[in-house]
């Protein structure tokens, strides 16, 4: 069977990180299940939601969801979010009982926009432009210290990372630049206990993966992600990283560097700085993945990398 590279797919693993195998959305090439970028995922209303930019040059945002206990079973049909378009992958976060989505505009408009799912109306809100916030690549979202945090790059060729926060999901603070961090792709955010972290690749020509954390006032200096305590981990895109408190470990999934489309996963135990990486068998992507954990499973969502016949 022919599979197209932009079709979305997912893989999930048990607590021992045994991956069950890739599942592709759609048997053919339905545009409602294809995306050129990293999809965004979140648990909301006890369901696993996936929001993504549509392929086929439509640039529309779309979504679908499923019970996290039944990801191999019943998913809703892919639905377009009316009047929301983007040229990059979106970001998701659950904040104050709403599912928020932030994304970059289209048609040369690099402004950031937000929308949220309303349980009352069972629909997405109208697009709301963040006041003076622009980004070349897709943003990252996380909830920390009772605020919704958005990290993104600058406009045009400005690869500097910056952040903005909101206490109500409606009003956003002015952008503040990170001290000295740059990236040439969308960043990632993750929360570990009481700490907020940002993972990202370097700027143009630098595919080393770095991480920084918020110290309550500013972002700490970048530190390299290391494999076997010696080698810098590299990727053309930011990794997906999530903290599993029950097992006291970070779980990371990343695409390889350059033209290497293989997906890898790694584990970092508390008090350690040494990632141990391994391949996810027969899983490939041309963009960064998104990752989340539930009590018993780790989920990874991503677009594909190549056409294959099976």
Automatic annotation (TrEMBL):
Record SUPFAM superfamilies: Fucose-specific lectin (SSF89372)
Protein name per the record: Sialidase domain-containing protein
High-level lineage: Bacteria, Pseudomonadati, Pseudomonadota, Gammaproteobacteria, Pseudomonadales
Lineage: superkingdom: Bacteria
Entries under InterPro entries matching the protein: Glyco_hydro_beta-prop_sf
